[in-house]
Amino acid sequence: SASSKQKNQGRSRSSKSQESFRATSLTENGSSDQRQACMKHELYVSFRDLGWQDWIIAPEGYAAYYCEGECSFPLNSYMNATNHAIVQTLVHLINPENVPKPCCAPTQLNAISVLYFDDSSNVILKKYRNMVVRACGCH
Amino acid sequence: SLTTDNGIHSSFIHGRLKSQEKREMQREILSILGLPHRPRPHLHGKHNSAPMFMLDLYNAMLMEEAGGYSYPYRAVFTTQGPPLARLHDSTFLSDADMVMSFVNLVEYDKEIFHQRRHHREFRFDLSKIPEGEAVTAAEFRIYKDYTRERFENETFQITIYQVLEENTESESDLFPLDSRTIWAAEEGWLVFDITATSNHWVVNPNNNLGLQLFVQTTTGQSVNPKMAGLIGRLGPQTKQPFMVAFFKATEVHIRSAR
Predict the structure, then answer these.
(1) How far apart are CA B127 and CA B100, in angstroms?
(2) Which residue from A minimizes the CA distance to B127?
(3) Which of B103, B112, B123, B250 is the most exposed place for a label (fewest CB within 10 A)?
């Protein structure tokens, strides 16, 4: 499973590099708006699909979301970006081979509450922090 | 033939990987939830009193998070009738990182008539509390039904004691924790504060000898808890007595490296 994960990562890395290559070509052609900016995407974790209805009382699942997209200059004004990310973007423009673009990552995370039985049929209601992406930004 | 063989082989591996991946995903999410393994509860009584109470708390928490809605604490009890008594304001609930209900482990009601005093016993296993959680409040909840006509105009005093030492020959050594005075005709959940005792039991599990409940009239006459309308093990599942504790995390949960 670990090796398959690595393979997948390798595959996604290569497809990402292909995408960025395509994006660069598009920029050269003057159609940079097709490149996807850093943003929040739908990702639902279903406890029902995991077959856990027998011990998780609520919720059935939760919208976790994930962040994906490019942090490219100029960083969109509506997007949360650290000061360092702005500097790193500029340095990347000067030296694209050695300095990567800033990463698109969660900037605000919310908690969820989960209600479940333990082995002794006691019931636990627990708050888990940092489970749901509220906002994405460039780091 | 080769193509067919390859087809079967690849689909077999694909199926295996998918179930492996599912197990891996389950393990990861269990780790995020801080659980060593998937819980296997003995009972699936989601409609028992404690799960229903906890589900009400869960819904109240969701409402509070959604719009800063300050719910009336009484709303928490909608599925289980109005409370006859309550301990706390809603603020301590929103401060809690974890709430846990405990099932009563006494298999049969021990309404022993000891030296002309009826009583009922309750035990709760507090050893399953996750590490790094401190008890901020704890309650014992028992449902009081209508009392039969015999006690219609009577007032009862219901007292909860912590068992300090069990004696087989004589009465156990008891420490009074909390009491309520109610009309015989009243109906609903009675709530007793057992915060200090719960903390003591968490620190000293060997001293957890349970609780005892006594009922008496204003004249001091001992009354059988069943006759006073207090629901026991033989009563409906939605009205079973249980214990609930509120916790605040004392340390941050860090996932162990694997």
Answers:
(1) 12
(2) A120
(3) B250
B207: pLDDT strictly greater than 70? yes
Q: Which amino acid is at B169?
A: E
Among A40-49, A118-127, B77-86, B101-110, the range scoring the smallest mean pLDDT is: B77-86
> Which residue has 């891996």 as its token pair?
B24
Q: Work out the mean pLDDT of chain B and round it to a whole number.
A: 78
What does the alpha-carbon distance between residue A64 and residue A59 come to, in Å, rounded to a whole number? 13
Residues 6+ apart with CB under 8 A from B36: B30
Residue of A nearest to B25 (CA): A50
ipTM reported for the complex, 2 dp:
0.81
Instruction: Give whole-number Cα distances, A48 to A2, A45, A62, B26, B171, in Å.
Output: 25, 9, 10, 12, 50
What would you report as the CA-atom Rg of chain B, rounded to the nearest whole angstrom?
A: 24
Residues B127-179 have pLDDT tens digits of 888 777 889 999 999 999 887 667 777 899 999 999 998 876 677 889 999 99
Q: Are B137 and B180 in contact (CB under 8 A)?
A: no
Tokens of A137: 């930004």
Q: Give the span between the Cα atoms of B104 and B120, in whole angstroms.
A: 12
Q: Any chain B CB within 8 A of the CB of A118?
A: yes
* SS3 assignment, position B197: helix
d(CA A7, CA B23): 19
3-state helix, strand, coil in chain B (%, to 5): 30, 25, 40
- A58 — contact with chain B (CB < 8 Å)? yes
Helix (H, G, I), strand (E, B) or coil at A3: helix
How distant is the Cα of B118 from the closest Cα of chain A, in angstroms? 28
* Of B96 and B52, more confident: B52
Q: Which of A1, A115, A121 sits opposite B21 (nearest CB)?
A: A1
Question: In 3D, which of B231, B147, B211 has the Cα closest to residue B183?
Answer: B147
Which of A120, A128, A130 is most worth mutating to test chain B (most B CB atoms within 10 A of its CB)? A120
